Amino acid sequence: MQILKRIAIIFISLVVVIIGTLYFLDEAKYTSFQKEILDELHKDGTLKITIMRYSDYARISITDKELVGKIFNDLSSVELKKVKDFSSQKEYAVRIYQYENLGFEVTKDLKYIVIFKGSGNTKYKVLNDNNYLKTIKNLDLQITE
C-alpha cells in the first residue's frame, strides 16, 4: 500500500512539474513592444527614425523629438506573442537609429511585427488592436525615384 502511495505522489509531482514548465514556456512567448524596442533606447541620445511603405516605396526620415515621441507613444502599449512564422506581406519598415540599429516591419493586415535587433529577427503576432500605427499612417511619406 505504501508503494502505491509513493508512486501516486511521484506521479502527481511529475504532472505538476510538467504543467508548470509548459505554463512558463508559454508565458515566455508573450512580451510587449515597450520591452523589446522602447526600453532599449537611451532617452538622452540622438534618435533618427526612417520609415518606408512597401506598397509604393515612399519614405521619410524623422529626427523631431516630438514626432518621435508620438510614434513611440502609439507603439508603447502593443502586446506581442512570439510566433514561428506568418504568411502576410509586409507594409511598413521602420528603422530606429541610435547607438545600435533597431527596427521592425509591420504586415499589411497589421497583425504581425518582425523585430530586428543586431543580426537577428523575431516574429510576433500583435495581440491588441490599439491603432498603433496612427501617427505613422498620417505622415507625408515621399516617393523616391
Please outline the helices and strands.
Layout: H1 2-27, E1 30-32, H2 33-36, E2 48-53, E3 58-62, H3 65-75, E4 79-83, E5 90-97, E6 101-107, E7 112-117, E8 120-126, H4 134-137, E9 142-143
Antiparallel strand pairs: 1-4, 2-3, 2-5, 3-9, 4-8, 5-6, 6-7, 7-8
Task: Characterize the structure shown.
With 145 residues, this protein is an alpha+beta fold. The chain has a single domain, classed as Uncharacterised protein PF16224, DUF4883 (Dna Ligase, domain 1, 2-Layer Sandwich). It has four helices and nine strands. The chain has helices at residues 2-27, 33-36, 65-75, 134-137; strands spanning 30-32, 48-53, 58-62, 79-83, 90-97, 101-107, 112-117, 120-126, 142-143. The protein has a nine-stranded antiparallel sheet. A hairpin with a 2-residue loop joins strand 7 and strand 8. The chain is elongated. The termini are far apart. The mean pLDDT is 82.
Any guess at the CATH architecture? 2-Layer Sandwich
Low-confidence sequence ranges: none
CATH topology: Dna Ligase, domain 1
| Major beta sheet, strand line-up | 1-4-8-7-6-5-2-3-9
Q: Into how many domains do the coordinates divide?
A: 1
Helix and strand element order: HEHEEHEEEEEHE
Biggest sheet record: 9 strands, antiparallel
Quaternary state reads single chain
Radius of gyration: 21 Å
The named CATH superfamily:
Uncharacterised protein PF16224, DUF4883
Distance between the termini: 82 Å
Helix content: 25-40%
Strand fraction: 25-35%
The CATH class designation is Alpha Beta
The chain-level structural class is alpha+beta
Give the overall silhouette: elongated
